[in-house]
Automatic annotation (TrEMBL):
GO cellular component: membrane
Name assigned to this protein: Unannotated protein
Membrane topology reported for the UniProt record: Single-pass membrane protein
InterPro entries: MFP, Single_hybrid_motif
Transmembrane regions: 24-44
Main location: membrane
Annotated compartments: Membrane
Gene3D superfamilies linked: 2.40.50.100
Keywords assigned by UniProt, alphabetized: Membrane, Transmembrane, Transmembrane helix
Amino acid sequence: MRIDAPTDPAAAVNESDKPLSRPLVVSLIGLIVLVAAVLVWAVFGRAPQTVSGFGYVLPAGGYNEVGTTLSGVVKSVDVEPGQRVLKGQELLSISVEGQNDPTPVLSPGDGLVVEVSALPGRVTLPGDPMLYMQPDGAELIVKAFVLATDAETIRVGMEALVSPADAPRRAQYGVILGTVAALSPTPVSAERIDFIVGGNSTLVDFFLAGGPVIEVTIELTPDPSTPSGYAWSIGQGPDVEISSGTLSDVSMLVRDKSVLE
């Protein structure tokens, strides 16, 4: 029968007193630092809280209304919405009684045709609007519509972020920077929205789909060095022109909150 030699108590003690290996110590220190960093971030870290809505881009000074002082019948319409025109370019022509040749209606300046209300064969009277233009160089603003239940924390001067629907690759270019310039004290009517969007009932229904909304006016931050003329959250932004009538997603930064809230 084999009898094992008794264990030396002193040797056992010496074995337990051996220091931890260096890799294990480094791992433990790293874990402690990571946990501490997470705790500090949880207590002191701040996360932005935003209120979102949908917006509509338009000139700050409104559209240029093009009409005529003549009475007659629209002979031809030579432009369409979205078309860029130059000052003096023929937009349409009118047949006037007693005149052999149609009278042209010319563009008052360089700009973008936004809406055409004139139709060939339609009678026109002095002062009737025939089309609307966005003049070149016009400052653009955004009219945002936010659910009244969400808009209570919005204040003038707050930072706003605007993402136009026709701007490509938000992940690459970011969003346009802006500032809340004004907001309606009470929910706006369907008639008010209809006026802003130029009589587009589909857009009126879209903006009111979630319930009563507050009208928020957002001024875009200018930056002449970018292709669009406005400041973007990432770099120079895309090489596109931001035009009136563009739909957009809008967010207002109402406050920073602790990540534990």
